[in-house]
Amino acid sequence: MSKALNELTITEAARALRAQEITVQQLWDACAKAAKEKNTELKAFLELFPADDTAIDAAQKRIDNKGDNTPALCGIPLAIKDNILIEGHIASSASKILSNYKATYDATVITKLKEAGTLFLGRTNMDEFAMGSSTEHSAFGAAKNPHDTSRVPGGSSGGSAAAVAAHMALCALGSDTGGSIRQPAAHCGLVGFKPTYGAVSRNGLEALASSLDQIGPLAKSVADAKALFDAIRGRDPLDATTIETAPSAVPVAFRIGVPHHLLTEGLDKDVRAHFDNALAAFAQQGHEIVDVSLPTSPHALAAYYVIQPAEASTNLARYDGMRYGVSVAGDSLLQDYVRSRTEGFGTETKRRILLGTYVLSSGYIDAYYRKAELARGMLRTEYDKAFESVDVIAFPTTPSPAFAFGEKTDPVSMYLEDIFTVTANLTGMPALSVPMGNVMREHASLPTGIHFTAPHGKDNVLFAVGAKLTGEQLY
Fold first, then answer.
1. Where in the sequence numbering do the catalytic residues fall?
2. Based on the structure, what is the number of domains in the chain?
3. What's the CA gap between 383 and 424, in Å, rounded?
4. Which residue range forms the structural domain that includes residue 327?
5. Collapsing DSSP states into helix, strand and coil, what is residue 159?
6. pTM for the whole structure
């Protein structure tokens, strides 16, 4: 086999396991060895789990007995973001306030992966409570980009992205609230997928913004992202927002909508050149490029940064030093609350809690929160109208490649990282980021990504269009 075992895709590893060319133990050992060797520098994992010999043996026996009928993920080592509960393991959301919290049950996605025979390498680094676009806001130190360790891997699922890009894991789970899977996927040269809202259960995901959050894969290929999505999707009685999404018809020739009016400012020229080249490649394949108008989209980022902090301030109110995580004693009950939250939360988390509490206050809820919700409704209407004439809508995933640590200290400049990704979360639509070529920055070759959005429930359409670009065959 020409590739090292830890460099395989899920598809390649599954085929080799079923052909008895490799064993589950060998695959685990290769990934665990790479993770141990590289993690000191990259800080992709907050914790590496010891080998579960019972699970490894069970996966091998299952493959030996069922062969090609074994689930695709059986025996595959994955990395899991630190805000997804795995029973018996710490789930801290990279926050001091939950640094000693040990999960008492499995998230639904973990239950499904265990049923499929998946193995878990460890919990990955992230921005605290998924608030950030760089993983610089982790309470335990920032993860680094494997393509250039002086640069961020993106966020908030930066640890998951770095782990897969550095071949420490074959694939990873992240969570996406405003681009937190797709943006780090673009910065690390991966495929990142945010499913339709409700297609994957959020039970066992430590909440940031409940109407925006969604669990999804970061993978080395479109086929791998689809395999992981297929394993975790579906209705869940423990999450009332979950839905069943039936596969949609996939066109032979795609109509790809491009809102050129949104690509005039703030987009690096070489990133734009790669985007134009990707569109030209689609046109050469016989697909149609259609200009679309999304007049409310320039306001999407502002709406998002009202709604997300508002929901975050409500969800994070539960961390009061009484029931969960770290508790810091004060001179009174009020001081217990104040000290626990002051010492437990980081700067960015405090900023968003304060902002969210402000926009929900009685004097400002009409001026800010309700107007943001109105803008959200208008965005849904505009996209629905655009999808009457196109199958998918394309953007660059990010305006620029991965930036250097400390480069975006101003919060607004950091928030602008999400300018092309937040709309999919506000509208609940599925979205996919696929690598589209590298650009040079200070002698480093850095990945970029192209971003596709499809109508609600048409997740499979995104995998099909992504595979057209990468040249993959989906089964």
1. 81, 156, 180
2. 1
3. 10
4. 1-475
5. helix
6. 0.96
